Structure formats: C-alpha cells, structure tokens
C-alpha cells in the first residue's frame, strides 16, 4: 500500500529531476531517498525513472503516478489546512483558474476583496484562454475554474454561471461598416481568426457542429490574446468572440462588432471544481465571492451576458 511519505519523496524527485536536489528539499539523505524509490518501484512492479548521468527522467509509469500523487498530496494539504482552521476561520491557499475575459470582468476586484476581507487566504490566480482552464483543473493545478462549456465528466462538479452571445469583431473594411447582424453563412465567407482551444474545443460556443464549420474556414488559429487583438486591429481578419474580449478596441472605435444570427451563437460559463476534492471554508468563501462579483458585473452591464444563477 502506498503511503504519503513515499508519494512526497517520489513527487520531489519528479519535480527536481535529481536525487540530490530532491533530498535537500525533503531533508532526507540521498541514499535513503534512493532506497525509498527502489522500494516504491518494487511495490508497483514498474520502473518510475530512468537513471541518467544528469539526473532522473520519468518513465511513462512515472508520469502517470505523478498525476495521481500531485492530486493526492494537494488533497491532503487542503484537509490539513481545513482541520487546523476548524473554528471556521477562512484561511489557506486557494488557486483559481479564469479565462482572459473573466479576468477582465472581475479579476482585479476579486484580488482586491480577498486582500481586504480575507487576509489569511493566499489567492493564486491563473489566467488562460477560454479552453485552457480545464487542463489546469484536471491536473489539480487550481482548486476551481471558470470554464466555458466543460465536458460532462463524472469527476467534475459544474455550476452554471452565465450565458454569453457571440459577435463578429473586426475592422469595418473586413466585416462591413455597419452594426447590423450578420448571418452565419455570410460569416463563413469572412477571413476568420480562430482562438485555438486545445482540450476544450467547445469553449468558443455551445454548438460543436457549427464550430467545425468555422474551423474549416479559419485562415489563422492562435492561442495568444495579444496576437489576436493585433491581427484584428491590423485588418488581417475578424474574430468570433464577445464584446468583452475586445472591449478596449471597440471603445477606441478601431473595430466594430456585429451580432451573429441564423443561428445565434452562444456559450455558457460554469464554475467547476473536482468532485473528488471536498470544499474547505476558504474555497467555499471564494466560490461565493466569484458568484457575487459575476452577478454584479452583469447587473452593472460591465459584462454583457445573461445570468443563470
């Protein structure tokens, strides 16, 4: 049976790639660490690292074990913190994953309120493009994440937050010098710059069939907010997104936004966490704060969306 000490030693070797550096981190002699690793490999019946002159390289089995070990060690750490604060004091580290648009809408306000009202909470905020927050959550790099159209996985606990309508954004000479709606069929004739979504292709819109048509016609695919914004402003193409995504450029008047019709395109934002990890007082408090900030942003029309909670 695996124990937490073995997992902690194994994770240190994996993260530092060296027995000596890992030994310094966990304050154990390198020979003792090597012995523990040998016992773990014998217990599992597989080699976890390839010993090389410049360090330790994980095998496929080592990569798989590290995914489990990281999740288990994070859960143990969260449990220890939660039990130490059994007086319901809100304390400990909370890692939150957010899309670029979510950070624009509520990120700074979230940080400000946590610093002011929850001084014992260490908030870690990770920004990503719409589809990249899911891998962070699945890898236990974050405790919760605002994710667009997450997959229906048994391991995820997902709460709907809001629904956004997508628009076509581009320079007037690219999409037309008008604010009138554009049909989906006409949209496909434009030079589309697509946000590259990775593991969560549905993050750009709810309808996967329509997304595949867009992907087939896109002239460029990028995973850089800066590059997308610059390319659209330069007139290289247009982007399908929300007004919030390019709000600054819209305010400057360098680009226009046209609603998309026949059909209307939309996407749904969820607050997700891993079902296997029980909430702590701190994560519950941050979840409630995020819901409240989203609601206020929508009600104050800083976030153009329809609340679902």
UniProtKB/TrEMBL annotation:
Record flagged with keyword Transcription regulation: yes
The UniProt record lists the keyword DNA-binding: yes
InterPro entries: LysR_HTH_N, LysR_subst-bd, WH-like_DNA-bd_sf, WH_DNA-bd_sf
GO function term, MF aspect, one: DNA binding
Domain of life of the source: Bacteria
UniProt record, GO biological process: regulation of DNA-templated transcription initiation
Record-annotated HTH lysR-type domain positions: 2-59
Keywords, sorted A to Z: Activator, DNA-binding, Transcription, Transcription regulation
Family membership: Belongs to the LysR transcriptional regulatory family.
Cross-referenced PANTHER family: NITROGEN ASSIMILATION REGULATORY PROTEIN NAC (PTHR30293:SF0), TRANSCRIPTIONAL REGULATORY PROTEIN NAC-RELATED (PTHR30293)
Protein name: LysR family transcriptional regulator, nitrogen assimilation regulatory protein
Organism name: Ruegeria marina
């Amino acid at each position: 049976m695996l124990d937490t000490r073995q997992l902690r030693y194994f994770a240190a070797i994996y993260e530092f790639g060296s027995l000596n550096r890992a030994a310094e981190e966990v304050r154990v002699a390198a020979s003792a660490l090597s012995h523990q690793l040998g016992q773990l490999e014998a217990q599992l019946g597989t080699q976890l690292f390839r010993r090389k002159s410049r360090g330790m390289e994980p095998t496929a089995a080592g990569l798989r074990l590290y995914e489990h070990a990281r999740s288990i060690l994070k859960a143990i750490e969260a449990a220890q913190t939660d039990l130490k604060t059994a007086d319901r004091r809100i304390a400990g580290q909370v890692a939150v994953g957010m899309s670029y648009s979510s950070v624009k809408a509520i990120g700074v306000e979230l940080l400000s309120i946590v610093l002011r009202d929850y001084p014992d909470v260490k908030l870690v905020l990770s920004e990503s493009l719409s589809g990249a927050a899911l891998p962070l959550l699945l890898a236990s790099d974050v405790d919760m994440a605002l994710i667009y159209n997450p997959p229906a996985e048994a391991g995820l606990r997902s709460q709907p937050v809001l629904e956004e309508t997508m628009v076509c954004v581009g320079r007037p000479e690219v999409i037309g010098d008008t604010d009138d709606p554009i049909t989906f069929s006409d949209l496909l004739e434009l030079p589309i710059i697509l946000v590259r979504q990775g593991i969560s292709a549905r993050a750009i819109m709810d309808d996967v069939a329509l997304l595949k048509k867009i992907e087939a016609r896109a002239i460029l695919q990028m995973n850089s907010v800066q590059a997308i914004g610059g390319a659209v402003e330069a007139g290289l193409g247009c982007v399908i997104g929300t007004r919030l995504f390019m709000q600054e450029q819209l305010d400057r008047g360098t680009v226009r936004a046209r609603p998309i019709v026949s059909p209307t395109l939309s996407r749904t934002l969820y607050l997700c966490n891993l079902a296997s990890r029980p909430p702590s007082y701190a994560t519950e408090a941050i979840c409630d704060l995020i819901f409240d900030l989203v609601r206020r942003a929508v009600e104050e029309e800083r976030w153009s969306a329809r609340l679902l909670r």
